[in-house]
Amino acid sequence: MSGCCLAGSATAQNTTVTGKVTDEYALPMVGVTVQVRDAQTAVVTDVKGEYSISVPKNGVLVFSFVGYKRVEEPVGTRSQISLRMEPEAIGIGSVEVVAAGYGSLRKKDLTGSIAAISGEELAALPAMNALEAIGSKIAGVQILNDGEPGEGASVRIRGIGSYNDAQPICVIDGQFFEVSELSTLNSADIESISFLKDASATAIYGSRGANGVIIVTTKTGASETGGVRVNAGAYFSISEMERYLPTATKSQWQQIENLAYLADNWSNPNAAASIPYPDWRNAGEGTDWQKLVSRKAFSHNYNLSVAGNSDKTDYFISATMLDQQGVIRYNDYTRFTARAKATYKPTVWLTLGLNSTFITDNRTNLERDVLSLAGKRLPQAPIYNNAEAGDSEDNFNGGDSNPYALLYYTHDRYNKSWQYVNNFFVEVSFLRNFTWRSSISNTNLQREQKVFLPAFMENVADSNSPYKVSRFRHNTNTNSNWLQENTLTYNLVNGIHRLNAVAGFTLQSYRTQYANLSASGLPWSAWKNRNLWYVGQGTDITGTDGGSEKTYASFLARINYTVFDRYILTLTGRVDGSSAYPSDNRYGFFPAIGAGWIISEENFLRGSRWLDLLKLRASYGVVGNDSGVTAAQMLYADAVDIVMGDGTVVKSDALRLMIDNSLTWEETRTFNVGFDLSIRKRLLELSVEYYNKKTSNVMMPLNIPPSNFIVTSNIGTIRNQGMELTLRVSPRIGKVNTSFQFTATTVDNEVLRINDQIGPISNLPNYTLEGYPVGGLWGLQTIGVFQNEEQLAQMPKVDGTRVGDLMFRDVNGDGMISNDDYVYLGSYQPKALLGFTGRVDWKGFVFSFELSSALGHKSFNRRMQQRQPSQNYMTGMLDAWHGEGTSNTHPRVFSWSDVTGAQNSDYFIENCDYLSLSNIQLAYNFSSSMLRKIGFRNLRVYLNVSNIYTWTAMTGYNPDVMPRGSNANSGGLDTFGLYPKSRTYTAGFSFTF
Fold first, then answer.
1. How far, in Å, CA of 162 to CA of 382, rounded?
2. Choosing a second label site near 840 at 20 to 30 A (CA), which of 359, 890, 926, 993?
3. How much is the pLDDT for 581?
């Protein structure tokens, strides 16, 4: 056993150290540099990955290899040091090995579309959840988050391909979760996140891969050989509303009322002399209800982890506590997470492991009416009946129309959850190249919610108000699942051949149960006494309960074969069986094929000094989506006649099963082609891809007339196609290291087919029909404003139209204005997503920033359309028509009951194109020479600002107005109930010793 000596000499005090270096697959690594720190002595590992080096007393060995993490090992009294090196993960472009589902693959050997980001980059940003930190860094991935505490982000990968839930599945350390559950994971615990985007990458997940897959790998203690490493960090933040809705001040409200008066009296030349508010300029601001219900929000986060490794054992234990305030008063969220991950290797061929997580959280969700009322209540309305008395039960003005009063009465609520996640596995290595792994995991989530809404002590303005009587809700929910997986992996590196093959069998079961109880008439004293928060304290008690079960049985296989280090073939297949489908359609087969050609390894390019990588790849495959199948079967009660033994007939209810027996798997066929380029030792990296994703048998819940039963059926075909580009440049200018990345994604979403018996799907102004995007926005097309009676008499119009109302185009030429004249007005889905990030390092200082943009999408301004006569105006009404010639684009002042407000039209369409300065950060990393004196390995301090400013013509809180819930036919509606985004200022630190 020997190494190739580079330099250095031994002394009598030196010790000879030997060992073996392997990669993440436990394969020997050739050419790893092993150097004595602060000395010239160094060797490189041989073809067996082995080395021998002379080390002075108290010396430290440094192991380094391009693309892998640098490792430092104090020698102490040891004479043998072997270790496993891990891929470097400093940024997206440098992740060499990525999680690919049931194993990892070299990035160079991928034929599918997989993008990865390291935990180190995620942890650098003080985001409330890991997805926020990703932002626009991954092409083809759109991450949406409104900032409400405790609410997870939504993710779209390559557009919306399903009418139901279009979110990808999330796999954390091999266990399946909803994307929202990723928000409970601390970024500091993450080793890497991989986004699987095409069928070649996602087919290994079969029926759950159609919307993409997010694979999260958490940290282990494997890299802490020979010692214990402690990591800790904390950050403190202040948040504020990034933007406010353009509601009218008291002065502006009076001005608009004057415009309404002038419009009503447009034919009177002297109307201006008798306006109702001649002194409107001096009316002042009045009450800003949005600012009144909002606040400066303070949040803090603490994390601590301990990791270590010995010859047979490695472990990683962490704890995180988050306390987050929302920018709306009383809207708070707390979370505590504890994780433990360990492996034990009693022999060279056997590995045992466990991975356990405990999460508990508590949130005070808002009554959504608070956000709505803050935009509707008149600015001249007072907060209190007696301003000097302040907050008290009988002093609020306006009852339930007062958003501040509603906050005061309804903010005390209980919404807590407990989640336990456990995974145990055993790995057996045999015949050198084989590894058998068997694991079993279970997840249990329990949530309990108690909400008490007291009757307002002051008489409310609306006699139909729900707040006239106290109400109480008690909801409980339990979700549990278990997963058993068995896989056999074969790894071979032999001369010109490199083969990775995996095959497996899995079983999984989901079960949910819920119980919802409600009561009214609880005593007033229950408001501030949670001991009385039980339905038995009230009257008119009602309740529902239910649940569901679903099981899977699956077979999977993948072969990744590389020959001559340049020709790559990937074959993947999975068979899924689900109990949720009719018996004739319970199994689906999801295959994929991918091929790659590393041109830079050809003889005519191999010697090039400037070219690191040039690779072509293509794939095609079929994957599925069953997220909408929970309503495939419905039990219902049906009245039947039962003949008794004496011949009498008794009426009774019998449970019957309603199911669409033709229901089959939702399938997505994806074609993907791309190329990857890297030059000058990653000075420039470029990746370009084209994708075409067609989803057939799209599932949708349908009403079964004449009943109200809802059953899932297959309704049509949707296609998404587009381009993705990632460009990264990393120039070094003197002692300054820089890195800049630009990402671009285009998405063309189109409904190709809707089954004849279904027809166009209406949820106006959303409308889904062939040839247009899912949930497109439809309405009448405006051509001006009626200026006088002559125009009114000559043009087609809606009944009740007056001078000053909008003029609509008679599209079908029938002389009438109706829904038959609707035209396509746009889509809430962006046609292009752009991102630009930058990082500059100099002498320990690191400055970074992120810009993001979305183009080509629209929203429908429900806030303006649905205004009631007693509610405040948006400032756009200051441009209202108030006489002939005053405006041909803005109508007279209107409310929802008027012709303009009652019609869905392009007047309410807003352009949602935006450019956002998403994040800036200044950090300082203390030098290792300074830290060694105090026993630290690293220390980092930083200042960060997120959601700094958004440039957009859209007037709502957030230009990304995606569907609420899982209905793709309900997006783009800008209503009062949306939560405002927040600008956050953060200071934090992290250290390791």
1. 47
2. 993
3. 82
